[in-house]
């Protein structure tokens, strides 16, 4: 199997075989991460810089841990307090960092496309840790690994992605990945939170949770992304919870063994009921966090192998 990418900017450019390659290697890293000694050496000698221009808890911690477990020197740039505040452009910041010879640059940015632009200006591998409403590839990969381990396969599943679809890079990356792996994806949410023209993309769109969740294998909930809303997209959080918040009654429409997912951070009592989120028989939210570290180890390992490989040759694993 090959993985020939130089960067991980999105799910869009990945071939299903490359997705499977990342997930297979991530499975091995899950095993390593469960050992008392969690150290590998795939990134030994390499420098990883994390640049987060937007707040993050899970993703930044996960990338940091992933790099450290594989032996990289990891540096977290405090972008809120950086020269950006003094007026430096994204490209100047990137070129400055590039001159310090990093090998892996992990970037989160509030603007869609910013990470792609940056990748064109530097000569290290760039990983997109979320850009605006565009993509969040490692989230979709960790979700895919969680589903594959829980369901024993990653194809021919009925999957409902629910809530604030239009502001969500998680929904977008998942939609692309799950489609590439031949699953049936449904989008469920109010029309105000659905991207316009989405029906043309071959997905089923539902406004009603009971109908949308009927017989699905996976229920993926999304956070209401208030920071990306500039008007009244929902009447009130109370009303939203009533119609779209996942509780036991709505979940009863899914298959009896359906799993519940959420990328975090969760708004309990808004898009999900706290008891459902904590129900270890249904919720795989903690597994998603665990898979996140393993997937990021795998992605950085594969990109690092390509850094070392002669130009235009992907690695064979
Ligand atoms: N943590 C995810 C993201 O960065 C989901 C969210 O924030 O709701 O997109």
UniProtKB/TrEMBL annotation:
Catalytic activity: carbamoyl phosphate + L-aspartate = N-carbamoyl-L-aspartate + phosphate + H(+)
Keyword annotations of the record: Pyrimidine biosynthesis, Transferase
GO CC annotation: cytosol
Binding positions for L-aspartate per the UniProt entry: 86, 169, 223
One of the GO biological process terms: 'de novo' pyrimidine nucleobase biosynthetic process
Enzyme class per UniProt: transferase
Residues that, per the record, bind carbamoyl phosphate: 58-59, 108, 136, 139, 264-265
Domain Aspartate/ornithine carbamoyltransferase Asp/Orn-binding: 157-302
Single annotated GO MF: amino acid binding
Pathway: Pyrimidine metabolism; UMP biosynthesis via de novo pathway; (S)-dihydroorotate from bicarbonate: step 2/3
Highest rank taxon of the organism: Bacteria
Keyword set includes Chloroplast: no
All copies of domain Aspartate/ornithine carbamoyltransferase carbamoyl-P binding, residue ranges: 6-148
EC nos: 2.1.3.2
SUPFAM superfamilies in the record: Aspartate/ornithine carbamoyltransferase
Subunit structure: Heterododecamer (2C3:3R2) of six catalytic PyrB chains organized as two trimers (C3), and six regulatory PyrI chains organized as three dimers (R2).
Known function: Catalyzes the condensation of carbamoyl phosphate and aspartate to form carbamoyl aspartate and inorganic phosphate, the committed step in the de novo pyrimidine nucleotide biosynthesis pathway.
PANTHER family membership: ASPARTATE CARBAMOYLTRANSFERASE, ORNITHINE CARBAMOYLTRANSFERASE, MITOCHONDRIAL
HAMAP family (UniProt xref): Asp_carb_tr
Entry's family note: Belongs to the aspartate/ornithine carbamoyltransferase superfamily. ATCase family.
Protein's name according to its UniProt entry: Aspartate carbamoyltransferase
Species this protein is from: Actibacterium pelagium
């Amino acid at each position: 199997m090959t993985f020939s990418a130089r960067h991980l900017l999105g799910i869009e450019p990945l071939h299903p075989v490359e997705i499977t390659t990342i997930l297979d290697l991530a499975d091995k890293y899950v095993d390593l991460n469960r050992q008392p000694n969690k150290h590998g050496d795939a990134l030994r000698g390499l420098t990883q810089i994390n640049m987060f221009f937007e707040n993050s808890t899970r993703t930044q911690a996960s990338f940091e841990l992933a790099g450290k477990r594989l032996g990289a020197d990891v540096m977290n740039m405090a972008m809120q307090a950086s020269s950006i505040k003094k007026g430096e452009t994204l490209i100047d910041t990137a070129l400055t960092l590039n001159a310090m010879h990093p090998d892996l640059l992990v970037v989160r940015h509030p603007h869609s496309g910013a990470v792609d632009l940056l990748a064109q200006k530097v000569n290290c591998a760039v990983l997109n840790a979320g850009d605006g409403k565009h993509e969040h590839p490692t989230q979709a990969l960790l979700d895919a690994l969680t589903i594959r381990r829980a369901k024993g396969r990653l194809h021919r599943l009925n999957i409902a992605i629910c809530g604030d679809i239009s502001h969500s890079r998680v929904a977008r990356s998942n939609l692309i990945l799950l489609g590439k792996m031949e699953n049936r994806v449904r989008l469920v949410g109010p029309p105000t939170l659905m991207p316009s023209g989405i029906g043309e993309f071959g997905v089923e769109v539902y406004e009603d949770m009971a109908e949308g969740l009927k017989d699905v294998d996976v229920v993926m909930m999304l956070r209401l992304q208030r920071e990306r809303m500039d008007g009244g997209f929902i009447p009130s959080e109370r009303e939203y919870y009533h119609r779209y918040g996942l509780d036991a009654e709505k979940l009863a429409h899914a298959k009896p063994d359906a799993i519940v997912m959420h990328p975090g951070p969760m708004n309990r009592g808004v898009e999900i009921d706290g008891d459902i989120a904590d129900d270890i028989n249904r919720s795989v939210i903690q597994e998603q966090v665990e898979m996140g570290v393993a997937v990021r180890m795998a992605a950085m390992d594969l990109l690092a192998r390509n850094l070392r490989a002669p130009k235009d040759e992907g690695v064979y694993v």
